[in-house]
Amino acid sequence: xxxxxxxxxxxxxxxxxxxxxxxxxxxxxxxxxxxxxxxxxxxxxxxxxxxxxxxxxxxxxxxxxxxxxxxxxxxxxxxxxxxxxxxxxxxxxxxxxxxxxxxxxxxxxxxxxxxxxxxxxxxxxxxxxxxxxxxxxxxxxxxxxxxxxxxxxxxxxxxxxxxxxxxxxxxxxxxxxxxxxxxxxxxxxxxxxxxxxxxxxxxxxxxxxxxxxxxxxxxxxxxxxxxxxxxxxxxxxxxxxxxxxxxxxxxxxx
Length: 254
Known about the structure:
Layout: E1 2-5, H1 31-45, H2 48-54, H3 63-69, E2 77-78, H4 79-82, H5 86-91, H6 98-107, E3 108-112, E4 116-119, E5 123-124, H7 140-153, E6 159-161, H8 165-168, E7 179-187, E8 193-195, H9 200-214, H10 221-230, E9 235-237, E10 247-252
Parallel strand pairs: 1-3, 1-6, 6-7, 7-10
Antiparallel strand pairs: 2-5, 3-4, 7-8, 9-10
């Protein structure tokens, strides 16, 4: 099984004094694109005002320019530890045991606008780049979409896509029986379901943590739904179960 997670705008500082090694990242076929994108980010960061405008940064975010400028020489840490924010706070990677972290290394993929899909334990520096960022001479969607789609399609087994739709645009979810995109919904007293935006992140983080601590091995989406029910989550097919589009599941936020 593979869980696809979105990144976060916010990143934890620090790490070990081991610089970024693009060739050591998962999905090695994406190394040339990563090299080009990282080079464009570092070059733009040498012009702070230009980078502030390109990344739509405010005065309190000027430190992000320095992060991008030093991208290739900064300390690194596993991607699962680097990202912060609502989803990653709920996932709480720092408290996972060794077995859970080993499972994450094999089963969790984090989709970065800068690096593309990453293994959870791939070591990366702090940086700032979003799905809609504009770099001189680089259109992220045009650059990433087809290569990421091919990389994800090649991944075997059940694939559960917990990314935002914006990141799906940078690399579509595979269309196949054992692949599904997850929407987080709330249910009111009348049983009506409503899609959530900001608050969906916590539900995704808690679900991911449960997967990492219990380490299921579903062979189909139906088996994954059954495991989720036993683990205390309401996960079910959405309206697109039987269409040519990507299968959609609905996860009810607690």
